[in-house]
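Support request from a user on the community tier.

User writes: "When I paste my structure tokens into the form, the page sometimes reloads and wipes my input. The last time it worked, I copied everything first. Here is what I submitted, just in case something in the input itself triggers the reload:"
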């Protein structure tokens, strides 16, 4: 019988039957592959594979998603306490696999050349694991949009040239791997003009940030910290108008912020700490979206821009160990849930901004080793969130507001080397978390309140070189955790019991 003699309804039935057989065969192959993957990871401390049984459809396996024809589209097993080795030969037999996400596990062993067979992959995440050896050439994976290999134990020479085929890359994360040293910033990266996320921190890159970085105008996140990069920040970086997160810390960068840096008005988080940068901070005045600014351990000079006092989102400011002068803007930190300031080891003067704990969220006030003057603002007595209060080695004076002594979460009060007067008040009993109380080299006076004996966590008490008087109370002997005690050059009497 010829095909022309077969009734149309029968032909339709046979076609459907053929498709069903095809899909059934394909699903059977995918089932066996997934079961092989399960076997290779059988020592994992997870329940993720409980559903991976032959009586279940593979599309109902936990972490598996499928196309409408039942073939495997994605394996999503990140952060599932997986351990063992991955058979990329098996995985890449999943002909329709578009996404492989196994980051944040304890996988180990090499990533073999078989990975090159996963040619339909658009998303690959092997990051935060314990693989070993080199990353294989990935040139065939030219459909990749997202590539995460960060912090996974890789070494050797990374196949940078294989990225040239990945013109659609949006996310590239390779940091925290000890690739071969003496690698200059790879030129291929600045040709990937669709990139939005670039993480190359701590992967032994040397040399300058190339001017071509300005090509990456879609970047939202750029992280190059903990490398051996040198030279100046190129002015072309000012073209990255969408950038909201920039990390350059722990390199050997020099010079001033380039003209135009202030064009990065989308920046919310910027960290260029521990470099050899210099000059003033005037280019940062227009970065009105800053929430976190960290520039510590550089050579910056001049004044903190007055505009910083108007930053509505600022919650973290760390400028310690520079050569900054002048006073801090008095509205600094008063707009958002300000959390932290450290301007230690500068030449700053003037009063302490009064409203950094206005929102009641501030945890650390670190302004030691400057030349601040005036009194501690009374507004800080309500800062119950404070954990470290350090204003030592300045020119501060007046009476310490009584509520400062009793901050309930403070672990360290350090007001040494100033000209403070007056007593320690009895509300110090409320400072139940206090570990260190450093008051030396002031003009403090009066008796030590008996309530100090209630500070069960106190390990260090430095009262030397003041005008304290009265008996050295027996309650000090109740401080069972006390390891260091300095009382000299006061007017105490009696003995410690």
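"...and here is what came back when it finally went through:"
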């Amino acid at each position: 019988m010829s095909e022309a003699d077969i009734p149309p309804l029968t032909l339709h039935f046979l076609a459907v039957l053929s498709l069903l057989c095809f899909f059934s065969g394909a699903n059977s192959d995918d089932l066996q592959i997934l079961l092989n993957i399960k076997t290779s990871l059988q020592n994992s401390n997870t329940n993720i594979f409980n559903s991976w049984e032959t009586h279940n459809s593979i599309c109902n396996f936990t972490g598996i998603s499928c196309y409408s024809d039942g073939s495997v589209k994605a394996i999503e097993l990140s952060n599932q306490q997986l351990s063992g080795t991955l058979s990329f030969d098996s995985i890449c037999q999943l002909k329709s696999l578009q996404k492989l996400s196994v980051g944040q596990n304890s996988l180990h062993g090499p990533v073999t050349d078989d990975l090159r067979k996963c040619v339909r992959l658009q998303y690959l995440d092997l990051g935060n694991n314990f693989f070993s050896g080199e990353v294989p050439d990935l040139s065939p994976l030219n459909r990749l949009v997202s590539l995460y290999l960060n912090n996974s134990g890789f070494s050797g020479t990374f196949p940078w040239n294989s990225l040239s085929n990945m013109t659609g890359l949006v996310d590239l994360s390779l940091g925290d791997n000890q690739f071969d040293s003496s690698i200059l910033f790879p030129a291929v990266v600045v040709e990937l003009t669709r990139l939005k996320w670039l993480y190359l921190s701590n992967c032994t890159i040397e040399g300058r940030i190339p001017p071509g970085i300005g090509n990456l105008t879609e970047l939202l996140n750029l992280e190059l910290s903990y490398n051996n990069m040198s030279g100046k920040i190129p002015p072309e970086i000012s073209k990255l108008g969408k950038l909201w997160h920039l990390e350059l810390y722990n390199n050997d960068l020099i010079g001033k912020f380039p003209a135009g840096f202030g064009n990065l008005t989308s920046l919310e988080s910027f960290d260029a700490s521990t470099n050899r940068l210099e000059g003033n901070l005037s280019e940062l005045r227009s970065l009105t979206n800053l929430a976190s600014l960290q520039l510590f351990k550089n050579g910056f000079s001049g004044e903190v821009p007055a505009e910083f006092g108007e930053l509505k989102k600022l919650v973290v400011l760390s400028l310690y160990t520079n050569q900054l002068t002048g006073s801090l803007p008095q509205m600094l930190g008063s707009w958002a849930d300000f959390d932290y300031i450290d301007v230690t080891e500068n030449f700053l003067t003037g009063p302490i901004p009064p409203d950094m704990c206005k929102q009641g969220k501030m945890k650390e006030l670190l302004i030691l080793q400057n030349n601040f003057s005036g009194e501690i603002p009374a507004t800080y007595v309500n800062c119950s969130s404070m954990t470290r209060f350090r204003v030592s080695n300045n020119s501060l004076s007046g009476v310490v507001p009584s509520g400062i002594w009793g901050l309930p979460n403070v672990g360290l009060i350090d007001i040494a080397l100033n000209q403070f007067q007056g007593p320690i008040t009895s509300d110090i009993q409320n400072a139940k978390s206090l570990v260190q109380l450093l008051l030396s080299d002031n003009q403090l006076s009066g008796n030590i309140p008996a309530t100090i004996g209630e500070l069960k966590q106190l390990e260090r008490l430095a009262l030397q070189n003041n005008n304290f008087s009265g008996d050295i109370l027996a309650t000090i002997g109740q401080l069972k955790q006390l390891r260091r005690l300095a009382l000299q050059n006061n007017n105490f009497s009696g003995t410690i019991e």
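Agent notes: The reload is a front-end session timeout and is unrelated to the input. The domain at 391-497 is CATH 3.80.10.10 (Leucine-rich repeat, LRR (right-handed beta-alpha superhelix)). Residues 13-25 have pLDDT under 50 and may be disordered. Escalated to web team.
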